[in-house]
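re: that complex we talked abt at group meeting.

here r the seqs, copy pasted straight from the sheet so there may be weird spacing, ignore it
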Amino acid sequence: MEKVASEKIIVEAALKVFSTKGFAEARMADIAKEANLSYGLIYHYFENKEKLFDAIVENWWKTFYDELEMLKKSASATKEKLVEIIKFMMNAYTATPSQMSIFVAEVSRGFIYHSSPRGKDKFRKLFNLCEDIIREGQVRGTLRADIQSNYLTYVFLGAIDTFLSVMILGNETLSKTREKRIIESLTTVFLHGAEAEAEH
Amino acid sequence: MEKVASEKIIVEAALKVFSTKGFAEARMADIAKEANLSYGLIYHYFENKEKLFDAIVENWWKTFYDELEMLKKSASATKEKLVEIIKFMMNAYTATPSQMSIFVAEVSRGFIYHSSPRGKDKFRKLFNLCEDIIREGQVRGTLRADIQSNYLTYVFLGAIDTFLSVMILGNETLSKTREKRIIESLTTVFLHGAEAEAEH
Amino acid sequence: MEKVASEKIIVEAALKVFSTKGFAEARMADIAKEANLSYGLIYHYFENKEKLFDAIVENWWKTFYDELEMLKKSASATKEKLVEIIKFMMNAYTATPSQMSIFVAEVSRGFIYHSSPRGKDKFRKLFNLCEDIIREGQVRGTLRADIQSNYLTYVFLGAIDTFLSVMILGNETLSKTREKRIIESLTTVFLHGAEAEAEH
Amino acid sequence: MEKVASEKIIVEAALKVFSTKGFAEARMADIAKEANLSYGLIYHYFENKEKLFDAIVENWWKTFYDELEMLKKSASATKEKLVEIIKFMMNAYTATPSQMSIFVAEVSRGFIYHSSPRGKDKFRKLFNLCEDIIREGQVRGTLRADIQSNYLTYVFLGAIDTFLSVMILGNETLSKTREKRIIESLTTVFLHGAEAEAEH
DNA sequence: AATGAATGAGACTTCATTCAT
DNA sequence: TATGAATGAAGTCTCATTCAT
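got the structure back, here u go
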């Protein structure tokens, strides 16, 4: 078999196993079995379990950064950008739920345990990119400026994160209709609040 | 030493170790050393590592449920109730940051893996309690009814969760002033949205 | 069983296995089996295979240094001291052939591979101690001064080393008579040379 | 590439790796990398790691035997022969230090383990050849006969071995002057002893 | 002749848990 | 109640060797 094929199969298998059992409970043997390859081969391509995991995560971060970076630079209105972020996350979930699951469960968790300072930096970068967009919205007068930009960011990202968590938890598939409703709900609540119109 | 004392010391130590390294990386030996007790003794009080962890988590959940339960039944206005939830979480963080850290990292992230089906149920219960309060707010006309109650719940809890995550990540202490500002921000955004007033 | 007992048993077993198979071929399982203990216990006392090996070697070096140090300081004549060194080595072989075997085979070998600079230092220390005694002999006029002291040391130690190697190789036991003959031979050749008297 | 070329490259690489890390720590992959060849190719030429090692050692032994054999048969005086042996070893070190390093570390130390009974035989043969020359010296009246011929052999070979060990350890290069001095010292001490002339 | 992907036995090591004291 | 020595299942990883190309 060619090199590229096997490596991809391994990554695919690892993705599945990691997302199902979590990093700690995932066994290299599980991954090998899932990939239908000897586990020796995994070490041919990846130094060890952690490096294999990192490779997967790294890949995810790259895609994510690229998207945010692009959005940040785009000429769209702030609201558009926020919607795009949500869309991107939802699509990512639909396309590769395992990857999203790892992201939500392992990466967020992992960065809390200050084991890897790199992890923290990754997160900060993500936060910062998002915050930049939100701050831009404040400057433009689209978003309220009486609340710190980082606080707004927390609410925004936290909301998305929880939606994803729930979807992952329920192993839910995302119909176009449902995706649309989620995006609308999220946007509406984030922008206009949860309070009933009447009270305004 | 008396029974109660040792048991408490163990729990305290476990709390610290679990919150620092996470469940998977926490070693019974670490806990014993932290507690300055032999690790044989841990097994006097707790059947095994998981039970020890559960004991800690259980304790936390109980406090949380009780609070939510109480809030749910209280006669307060919905807004009050929501503020109380936030307050409760922030206070919990201030009082026992390790417990909060475990909650956020292990429970609110780790529950994704089907390994502990109990975890899921706990979470659903929490969601449900919170959703009940929110649904009540919708019925009462305080909260908008055009968005599913569970969606509103996700945004609300997700926002809190992320605030906590960031605080845990930064190992931040929470001054009264800061707590107040966070509560206000969270409430404001959740209720009135992030959009600039001008646009209304 | 008490702590000290088990640790000693492990060391004893390790000594046997290492001396029989060499470090590389020695299996932790072999040692455990030889000690009639679970291999987990070995790790209770020693961090890993290398540390276990080091502990054994360290112990040997200490005994050896102490002896040489003592000899160096003693008021004996140089010849006496040299005889004592030989005696010490022969006795060490008789008392603990495995230890001697490890010393000759593994330590001498290991120090060639510059893996552990500590190893080199140990050897240098040994050489130096011996050289000090020999230099003292030169100063006193007992040993010829027209040959570098280190060269004399090499011949002296090399000769002993080879005697030991041969004994280990043949798994020989050392009768008092034989020991005496070896000491005499070694001393005679080293001091007076191998040339036939006639030629003097 | 032609057959002979590759085989030679492999042997050369193996020589380097074995001499640097020792047999146990040498990896087939290291050798392949050193040779700039795939490791599959090594197995074209050598059955396995041990055979590869043996091939190298065998080659060395053969040269050595041939030399000793020739010397043994030569009409030279005993002293001449001994000097020739020393010279041969020193030259061998200068010409191929790696080979010498392997010889000293792996063969002359490693033969202790019964793992390779062939090793023992080789050594005995070497000893015997050398002893033959020494015994001849005793018969001729050149060397003292009151000490067992094998004992004399041990001292002689041991001294050389240690000189080599020290040189290998120090990664020393051997100038002609230094070589001469070593040969002289070794010969002098071996023949006339280390005792000061005055005492005779 | 040459490659390097693929294999898998087997080594080391970890660590939750038991148990004699 | 308390200790920590003892256990061994189970995991990670290594690396000589094979084999399809």
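couple things i noticed - Residues 27-29, 39-40, 43, 48-49 of chain B lie near DNA strand E (CB under 10 Å from a C1'). Chains B and D do not touch (no CB pair under 8 Å).
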